Amino acid sequence: MKVGILMGGISSEREVSLNSGKSMMQHINKEKYEVVPIVIDKKEDVIENVKDIDFALLALHGKFGEDGTVQAVLKTLGIPYSGCDTLSSSLCMDKDLTKTILKANNIRTARWLNVKSIEEIDYEAIEEMKYPVFIKPTNGGSSVATFKITKREDVENAVKEGLKWDNEVMIEEFVKGDEITCPVFENELFPILAIKAKTDFYDYEQKYSANGAEHFAINLEEKLYKEVKEMALNTYKALKCSVYARIDMIITEQGVPYVLEVNTLPGMTATSLFPQSAGEKGISYTNFIDMIIEYSLKNFK
Ligand SMILES: Nc1ncnc2c1ncn2[C@@H]1O[C@H](COP(=O)(O)OP(=O)(O)O)[C@@H](O)[C@H]1O
Ligand SMILES: [Mg+2]
């Protein structure tokens, strides 16, 4: 079977994706699969360069990769691909829609506003949420243009900055607490990892620099674990995820978990969160890639 590893792409997460792709190239079982790297430099590459592969292993992140567009092209061409389908990928890319669906399913998520212009900023609603608030692109990733805003005077600039990256921007209630990530594989919760940033929050630098955030497996107290597990699995189900997705949460000092966002094509370097969690379960990165391919093929209709 000929597996193409799609990486690069045109989003703000291109560099990250190239690293994910490189790691997948290194770790994929080359005795089992014939592997070709496919670096996407422009949109058309997805159509031109995938024609002779049997499976597309997606190492893409962000817009035009994680948002369902590439999945739609592959589906149209009849090429099976890894991870969530078009609908689920698009839903999870849009944090406003993600949260709307979570809310409808009674899954706890912080209050928020979504705006398309600075005129739409509702300062009264922000006052109600209380400062600080987080302001970030609705369809963002890798913490680009993400700001913790402590006062009214800074809101407009943060929204303007976000609008440089996206057509919509979210203003979200600040959830003070500990960040965790819940990797879910085929409706099964893998070991939960804690994320400890060394700065105020998990920004770009903390995500990708060698001296960035630390992440390690944690054991939550039983009652909290049960709640987090239920929330993670319900989130996965509500957003119609398949194969794998990573659900990020913040647990407040009072022990109350909030869903922050869902990543349908999370980072895939050997030291990224999902492969690390699989490792905690005794699944090597090579086997983990195998499992992704196997279940993605099974789900592809
Ligand atoms: N409402 C919030 N409360 C507290 N921290 C937040 C909030 N929103 C974002 N953050 C911080 O910013 C980081 C990036 O935000 P996130 O919503 O995960 O977007 P991205 O898709 O860029 O990862 C989070 O990991 C967290 O550290
Ligand atoms: Mg995130």
TrEMBL record:
Annotated ATP-grasp domain residues: 99-294
Top EC category: ligase
Molecular-function GO term, any one: D-alanine-D-alanine ligase activity
Record localization: Cytoplasm
One GO term (biological process): cell wall organization
Cellular-component GO terms for this entry: cytoplasm
Gene3D superfamilies per UniProt: 3.40.50.20, ATP-grasp fold, A domain, ATP-grasp fold, B domain
InterPro entries assigned: ATP-grasp, ATP_grasp_subdomain_1, D-Ala_lig_Van_CS, D_ala_D_ala, Dala_Dala_lig_C, Dala_Dala_lig_N, PreATP-grasp_dom_sf
Annotated family: Belongs to the D-alanine--D-alanine ligase family.
PANTHER family registered for this protein in UniProt: D-ALANINE--D-ALANINE LIGASE (PTHR23132), D-ALANINE--D-ALANINE LIGASE B (PTHR23132:SF23)
Protein name per UniProt: D-alanine--D-alanine ligase
Organism: bioreactor metagenome
UniProt gene name: ddl_11
